[in-house]
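Step 1: inspect the first sequence and its tokens.
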Amino acid sequence: MKFRMDREALADAVAWTARSLPSRPTVPVLAGLLLTVDGDTLTVSGFDYEVSARAEMAIDAGDPGAALVSGRLLAEITRSLPAQPVQFATEGTRVVLTCGTTRFALPTLPVDDYPTLPAMPEPAGSLESDVFAAAVAQVALAAGRDDTLPVLTGVRLEIEGDALTLAATDRYRLAVRQLSWQPLQPGLSTTALVPARTLADTAKALATGPEVVLSLAIGTVGEGMIGFTGAGRRTTTRLLDGEFPKYRSLLPVESPASALVTANHLVEAVKRVALVAPRSSPIRLSFAAGEVVLEAGGGDDAQATESLEASYEGEPMTIAFNPGYLLDGLGAIDSDVARLALTTPAKPAVITGKEPESTYRYLLMPVRLAG
């Protein structure tokens, strides 16, 4: 095998594919990236039996063949190379990578021992890549990170015709985004629970292309798979098993109180006030006509207070939130003005953009205040 190509394109593809490699592979070959040359195309592949990633690129010139090399090492090397064309060739049991006056010789792993990547499921539909990436970013931040509760580490995709809904929760907050897409099968109705980390990485990587094609294979327990294709890349991942929480019942039908606050002003105020909040301590937001007062700390500890102008409707109310979770929600809305819909100090608040019928909703559980 032999090829020559642009360093930046190679480094980008290797870095993206290497992200799917396991940190502790069960067998040595799973730590490798498979490089295959066929005609004027180079394919870089990675697979750990759960997630597969594949990137295709045009090469200047090449001889057909395949080589399996350490993925993380190759990613580090290609990232550090000078901005010159890269030549890659196999020599016996090694591959030689040359870039300008820089030369690396790397041992290869046995290609015959590498598992066959799964076939891409049947396409189900497509949507604009930038819209998909933005929606995933808004929702995935609310997914759990506790692997002992795998269901909460996923993003639930709900498909009803041309409507696609994404939802994620870690029990302390819930993010929901609704968007339109183009299904290939009219009246398609299904759900899928996708690992949030894989979905977020994939959506971000595919945003460089015009659209993302979503492929689905919903089988029996343990056999579900989803695939994404775009920008010369494609990835598959097994779906998570389990019952996702019935989150729709958590979203309040109506809220007796609501506040409109300039989003970036509120973000900066939360950051400042939270400086005196000990780890995991909440900040308090007191709403009244015309303003919201943010407070943190108290007693013999450091204290902070800041007042912001706000348009508020409802009875005066004080409610407390985890500042990190609050900032996540405020940062995710696509609006200059944040709307906080409130019920009681003990019930969740819903953060949206200025318009209450926003396609994005971020539900945040309050922190119970002593007394």
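Step 2: inspect the second sequence and its tokens, then contrast the two.
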Amino acid sequence: MPDLERLLQESAKVHGHLCAGQVLGVRMSMLGLNAIGISDPKGKDRKDFIVFVEIDRCATDAIQSVTGCTLGKRTLKFVDYGKMAATFVNLKTGVAVRVLAREDSRQKAKEYFPEIADRYEAQLKAYKIMPDAELFETSRVRVDIKPEDMPGRPLGRVRCEACGEYVQDRREIMRDGRILCRPCANGGYYKDEDAAAFFSPSVMQFLHNDFGIRSKLWIELEGEPVFGRGRMFLLAAIDRWGSINRAAREAGISYRKAWSYIKAMEDRLGIRLVERRSGGKGGGGAELTPGIRDFLSRYEAIEKDIRKAADERFNELFGQ
């Protein structure tokens, strides 16, 4: 690891200036990386660890500078706890250490430089020389990282039923049999004033009257249901994974049940839905036919139009 002064200089370039929080972040990183056995974080060890930060303050920029971890690389994880703490996880060994800045270090910093009137300046100078034990509390922890949170290609990409936007990395929420993005399920930090999706059924619950509306579309043949949202999700999962078995698991049904749905749809629609590939060098799998892709596109278009019309009319009659 480079020495402290060099790391502070690099961190100041990233952050824009050097402050007490930067010093804490740099020293926190040095301590955490050493504790999990990472000596070359930007070189040979760059793919061997992940860092969780618990606050969006100066120290986080310093941690990013020292470790080389970033949100874009999926090696820096932000959990909004509002605490001056970070957890360093060695992906190879499983060793994880949480480093927490001690609250009493602020007062101790003043004791190191009592002649400095500005407490922030005193902290900046003191944090460079105070022992680790006076600055931080460390603890061995366990972090179970889900596959969808690991670096690499997205493990899934699904379409929110309410707003129509796509969600990656299994961040979707299943509610009442519907796939929803988190803003549509629980409310988001923004309100899209221009998009009709703002008045989607999943968001209407936040209006002052707590009313909501749902619209549902299915296609019938001679009075018998042929195609609907559930079948659409099954086919979309097959398209996403290239596997009927995996799509069935995602839909919460057996492989036999999924295949029976596919055959029933093929018989009623009069088109072939899925082409199955036998095993071999590349393994077996399944893919949607061009005919059903076109059908799905038309179904999604009319469903979106119906949902939009229903939501706009609902807002006219029951909205604010």
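Step 3: confirm your contrast with the notes below.
The chain has two domains: 4-149, 157-318. The longest strand covers residues 85-90.
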